[in-house]
Write a structure and sequence with these properties.
The structure holds 2 protein chains of 2 kinds. Chain A is mainly alpha-helical. In chain A, 78% of the residues lie in helices and 0% in strands. Chain A has 8 helices and no strands. Chain B contains 3 helices and 12 strands; from the N terminus they run H-H-E-E-E-E-E-E-E-E-E-H-E-E-E. Chain B has helices spanning 4-14, 24-61, 154-161, and strands at residues 65-68, 75-80, 84-92, 96-99, 102-105, 110-120, 125-131, 134-140, 146-152, 166-171, 174-179, 181-182. Chain B is of the alpha+beta class. Classes of the chains: A mainly alpha, B alpha+beta. The A-B interface holds A 11, 14-15, 18-19, 22-24, 26-27, 30, 32, 35-36, 40-41, 43-45, 47-49, 95, 97, 100-101, 104-105, 108, 119-120, 123-124, 151, 154-155, 158-159 and B 1-2, 6-11, 13-15, 17-20, 22-24, 26-35, 38.
Chain lengths: 161, 183
């Protein structure tokens, strides 16, 4: 694929799936503006470094990987900033969970990072296990195990709540 | 107990569906600034590599590294008789490199030679350097006072230093020979 063709491909992907990318990034950063910024940065990085893309791989998977990394970076930055201001990121989000759904939301936030990302990519992006494995750089079996463990933890958490 | 609908609802609440405004121009703007940032980061590295590559050239320019003739290696032969007086001498070219205050010797294949006639009867003279591997004509029908030339080959040097090189002058069919020795 030529550089110009790849730029067109990235533009098409951006146009078609921006909402999904931002939604998944939102779940990671817990802030819509931060998520939007991470996705814009992720696509900019993909455009700037498109010569490094291995053409045997799937472009969308590559972009997901970049955006997840950007969202996690953004999340960490925000967390540092928030701790400096002695205010948690959760407090900054407009979401105010309550009742059973609120407990699930809190439980989701408390999941280990890989499990949480697997859940987000499965439900928000509707990616299959193979693609999630590529994005998270793990084996497909690990994705199944992570999703299963995540569901189990959520179940335990809600049963004890 | 957790069920799928609870999980879906929670996920919906965590990151609600919404239409996001597209701004591809902003993406392109950000990518340009990334490329500029990369260039700025790489520039000092490129400068460092170029500086290292230019170091030998700078050393030459500042005479830190220079070449000259070997000061001590010199060979020669003299033929002095009633008919003529001829002196042959030769030096290797640029066999010494001065690196800073030190000197390093490098073998070169070039041999700079001089043949000076101080007295000649005006007869027909031919001068040759004779080696086991062949003869080198220094001058044929030599009538001048001084001849200079260069001859290549590390083998020539090895033969001369091994005492197997001779200066041979032929004057009107009569031959005179002298061994070329280290001076």
């Amino acid at each position: 694929m030529r550089q110009d063709d790849m730029l067109d491909e990235l533009a098409r992907l951006y146009e078609a799936k921006l909402d999904t990318f931002v939604r998944a990034a939102h779940a990671i950063t817990r802030n819509h503006d931060a998520a939007r910024d991470a996705v814009q940065d992720g696509f900019a990085s993909a455009v700037a470094h498109r010569h490094t893309f291995h053409h045997g791989a799937a472009l969308e998977t590559w972009v997901w990987r970049i955006i997840i990394r950007k969202a996690l970076d953004r999340c960490r930055q925000d967390r540092r900033a928030a701790s400096a201001e002695t205010m948690s990121v959760a407090d900054a989000t407009p979401l105010q969970p309550s009742g059973n759904h609120g407990e699930i939301t809190r439980a989701l936030r408390d999941l280990p990072e890989r499990q949480r990302l697997a859940v987000f990519l499965r439900y928000y992006a509707d990616l299959d296990y193979m693609t999630i494995a590529d994005v998270l750089d793990v084996r497909p079996g690990t994705v199944g195990a992570s999703l299963s463990a995540a569901r189990q933890k959520l179940k335990v958490r809600l049963t004890s709540a | 107990m957790i069920d799928s609908s609870d999980l879906y609802t929670a996920l919906e609440r965590l990151a609600p569906r919404m239409e996001v405004e597209r701004d591809w121009e902003d993406v392109l703007r950000r990518s340009r600034s990334i490329r500029l940032r990369v260039l700025r980061t790489r520039r000092p590295l490129i400068l460092a590599i170029v500086s290292i590559a230019l170091l030998p050239a700078a050393a030459f320019a500042s005479s830190y590294l220079s070449f000259s003739s070997h000061p001590s290696l010199r060979v020669g032969a003299t033929i002095d008789n009633a008919r003529l007086n001829a002196t042959f001498s030769a030096q290797p070219r640029r066999t010494f490199a001065h690196i800073g205050s030190g000197k390093r010797s490098f073998p070169t294949r070039q041999l700079d030679w001089t043949l000076v006639f101080q007295r000649s009867t005006g007869s027909k003279v031919t001068a040759e350097l004779v080696l086991p591997t062949g003869r080198v004509t220094l001058c044929a029908r030599c009538k001048g006072q001084e001849y200079r030339g260069a001859y290549g080959g590390l083998g020539v040097w090895l033969q001369i230093l091994d005492g197997r090189g001779y200066l041979r002058l032929t004057v009107d069919g009569e031959t005179f020979t002298a061994k070329v020795r280290r001076e």
